[in-house]
Write a structure and sequence with these properties.
single chain, alpha/beta
Length: 149
């Protein structure tokens, strides 16, 4: 299991948790650090072939609770094991504990994470999903087609 958790939790800042197959989450955190430097309240959990799925899902559920102000959960693939484990181990609890203020988005890309970092200070958790959905879609560009314009 790949697991990166901040040493210090900023209780005034919404957290970001990237859940993925393999090391995608770790690589995303490294990319964020290249752009922003140190970034508070960002964590990841990566599923490896040797992991016990039930244990991994329980750890994912526990990680969604480490940020007092709530957690933006990014999932690498809708319907994939990390997404399914989030739904089974954390989604219901997140909605119940936070009066519907939960955010989980599948299909993560770097633009979505950067947008989340910018938005989490000023936007309610329940409103961030739509913003991140748009940021993710806007980041997918047919570069050669764009250059023709």
């Amino acid at each position: 299991m790949i697991r990166i958790v901040p040493e210090h939790i900023d209780s005034d800042c919404i957290g970001i948790l990237i859940c993925s197959h393999g090391s995608i989450g770790r690589s995303m955190i490294e990319a964020v650090q290249m752009i922003y430097g140190d970034c508070p309240n960002i964590a990841c959990i990566g599923l490896e072939p040797s992991d016990d799925i039930d244990d991994w899902g329980k750890e994912l559920g526990a990680l969604t609770e480490i940020f007092p102000k709530g957690t933006i959960v990014f999932l690498d693939l809708f319907g994939g094991t990390p997404c399914n484990q989030y739904l089974m181990n954390a989604a219901g609890e997140a909605l119940a504990q936070r009066d519907g203020q939960a955010c989980a988005v599948a299909g993560v890309n770097l633009s979505m994470i950067l947008e989340a970092i910018g938005q989490r200070e000023y936007t309610e958790l329940k409103e961030i999903s739509e913003i991140l959905d748009k940021a993710g879609k806007d980041a997918v560009v047919n570069v050669l087609q764009k250059m023709k314009k």
